[in-house]
Amino acid sequence: MAYSGKVNDFEAYIAELEKKLDNKDAEIRLLTNEIDKYKQILQPLTAAVLGFHSIDGAGTPPAVSVMVTAGRIKKFAISAEPLAIEGAQQLLMKTYPKSVRSRELIKDAILDNDFMKNLEITQIREIVDCMYPVEYAAGSLIIKEGDVGSIVYVMEVSSFWHRASERFASSRRIGKEE
């Protein structure tokens, strides 16, 4: 509706604009909450995977301002400028050599995961490249129920003890739990 010059039309036009503004504000709040949820999940994971160290050496990304309000840290300015070559070199991910069999096992495990299967193939390839082997002694506690799931494990061994169900879990095919 456009303003035509009459007082009633003007009031209706203002009401329509206020309604549009309220809808946009609600959408912004919703999207901001979604972004906050994703940041809580991805920031610790990204820092752990990349072993992130900023140019300033403080452990926070460059060009990020931080504001503390009511006990909660909020980021209010993030620069999307391209990094200098020197800074970009610090963000290179460490890769580990793997056999073809191990690469396929990891890729299959990622594609079987409900959250990770939606990643792009280049992202999956990067995850596979950056995963590294860890061996645990028999009887070791590897994953504790209730822990934050910021680490991805791919079991290459075909059997293990599942404490929560009090049973020995085994796989018919490596990489897939029964």
TrEMBL record:
InterPro entries: cAMP-dep_PK_reg_su-like, cNMP-bd_dom, cNMP-bd_dom_sf, RmlC-like_jellyroll. One of its GO terms (molecular function) is protein kinase A catalytic subunit binding. It is found in: Cell membrane; Cytoplasm. The keyword Repeat applies. Transmembrane segments: none annotated. Residues 115-156 form the Cyclic nucleotide-binding domain. Keywords: cAMP, cAMP-binding, Cell membrane, Coiled coil, Cytoplasm, Membrane, Nucleotide-binding, Phosphoprotein, Repeat. GO terms for cellular component: cAMP-dependent protein kinase complex; cytosol; plasma membrane. Residues 7-41 form a coiled coil. SUPFAM superfamilies: Bacterial hemolysins (SSF58100), cAMP-binding domain-like (SSF51206). PANTHER family: CAMP-DEPENDENT PROTEIN KINASE REGULATORY CHAIN (PTHR11635), CAMP-DEPENDENT PROTEIN KINASE TYPE II-ALPHA REGULATORY SUBUNIT (PTHR11635:SF153). Belongs to the cAMP-dependent kinase regulatory chain family. Regulatory subunit of the cAMP-dependent protein kinases involved in cAMP signaling in cells. Type II regulatory chains mediate membrane association by binding to anchoring proteins, including the MAP2 kinase. This is cAMP-dependent protein kinase type II-alpha regulatory subunit.
